[in-house]
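Input record, target 12 of the design panel.
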């Protein structure tokens, strides 16, 4: 593997040049991509405007109503090849009425969180979403409702979540040729081959990123990530960075991938299962999600390339049939949904892979490669994919 190292560096560097030339400077064509945090004063002003509307309604003996963009409708998003899925300027909304039994609780929850956020911003202090939940567990009932409302507020106020002074505990892990400073000055070194580093909860505060990595590899599952870590993949193969969101990625993992792209401008690959769920996860990193489309410019990396596991790999490598899994009805439904996505028209090679899966009616996990040889993934599959351009 070491003997092909120089060739690999050359191929990856060529790819990097092509990417920079094709993607160009996204901040030029899309100035919103360069937006930083909203100022403290502006954040407070936008919250005050919402509260003023509530007070005005009460003074007029009217039931206050909060209007939120509908974050679950595909009709509210459009596809931009340089950004991904972004919320349309004109979009449908949801009315949260204070006098309606079905929405009164959510109305109270939103006002409570607005109150907490206002105090946080005013005092320049921070809290986690978990802290907010424990602020009033009876009102919120579950952590999920807090998480959803914070994103609703961020979308309603058109303010990035980090400007609300609310952080989420990260679930992702990162390792490889990377060092940086946290906002508080803590130096983070991700180069240890024995353990991974949790993804930061404050991505916007990261500075002084230093790396000689040739590429970033997004890994769908923790089990595969740990296998690469155990095999010392980041140093044996090529200086690189590997990151996992442990399945469906949290916002911090997505922000970190975007931060690495903005800073290093090196190729970003995805290693996911050859199934509709894995492909959906890869699409979230690359194109974003409907629910977070209002913050697409800071969450997506449209240059992400699908390294594997490809449906065509299953035939080409003759993965044993006993390692293949029949598609379920749910898989077929997800696959049909993916094939109808607007962004696939820009990815004919991806479309071919999905159609192949549709025809074969089988899926496979990355671990299925172990049926060929226990070390096939790290010793043969990935090195050859990277060296000979086996991505789409």
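The sequence produced for target 12 reads:
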């Amino acid at each position: 593997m070491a003997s092909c190292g120089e060739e690999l560096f050359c191929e990856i560097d060529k790819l990097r040049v092509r990417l920079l030339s094709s993607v160009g400077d996204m901040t030029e064509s899309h100035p919103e991509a360069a937006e930083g945090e909203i100022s403290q004063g502006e954040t407070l002003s936008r919250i005050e405007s919402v509260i003023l509307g509530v007070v005005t309604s009460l003074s007029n003996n009217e039931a206050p109503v909060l209007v939120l963009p509908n974050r679950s409708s595909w009709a509210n998003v459009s596809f931009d090849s340089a950004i991904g899925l972004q919320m349309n300027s004109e979009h449908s909304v949801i009315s949260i009425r204070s006098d309606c039994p079905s929405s009164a609780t959510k109305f109270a929850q939103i006002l409570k969180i607005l109150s907490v956020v206002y105090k946080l911003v005013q005092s320049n202090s921070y809290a986690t979403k978990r802290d907010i939940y424990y602020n009033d567990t009876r009102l919120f009932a579950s952590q999920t409702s807090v998480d959803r409302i914070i994103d609703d507020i961020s979308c309603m106020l058109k303010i990035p979540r980090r400007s609300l002074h609310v952080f989420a505990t990260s679930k992702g892990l990162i390792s490889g040729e990377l060092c940086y400073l946290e906002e508080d000055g803590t130096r983070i070194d991700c180069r240890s081959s024995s353990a991974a580093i949790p993804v930061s909860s404050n991505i916007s505060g990261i500075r002084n990123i230093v790396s000689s990595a040739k590429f970033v590899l997004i890994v769908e599952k923790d089990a595969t990530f740990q296998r690469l870590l155990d095999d010392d993949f980041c140093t044996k193969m090529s200086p690189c960075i590997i990151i996992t969101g442990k399945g469906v990625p949290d916002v911090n993992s997505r922000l970190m991938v975007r931060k690495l792209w903005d800073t290093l401008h090196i190729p970003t690959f995805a290693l996911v299962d050859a199934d509709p769920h894995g492909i959906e996860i890869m699409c979230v990193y690359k194109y974003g999600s409907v629910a977070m489309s209002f913050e697409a410019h800071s969450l997506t990396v449209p240059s992400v390339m699908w390294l594997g596991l490809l449906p065509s790999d299953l035939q080409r490598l003759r993965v044993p049939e006993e390692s293949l899994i029949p598609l379920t009805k749910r898989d077929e439904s997800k696959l049909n949904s993916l094939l109808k996505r607007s962004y696939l028209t820009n990815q004919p090679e991806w479309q071919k892979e999905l159609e192949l899966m549709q025809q074969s009616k089988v899926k496979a996990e990355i671990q299925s490669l172990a049926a060929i040889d226990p070390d096939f993934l790290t010793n043969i599959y990935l090195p050859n994919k990277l060296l000979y351009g086996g991505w789409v």
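The chain has 16 helices and 17 strands.
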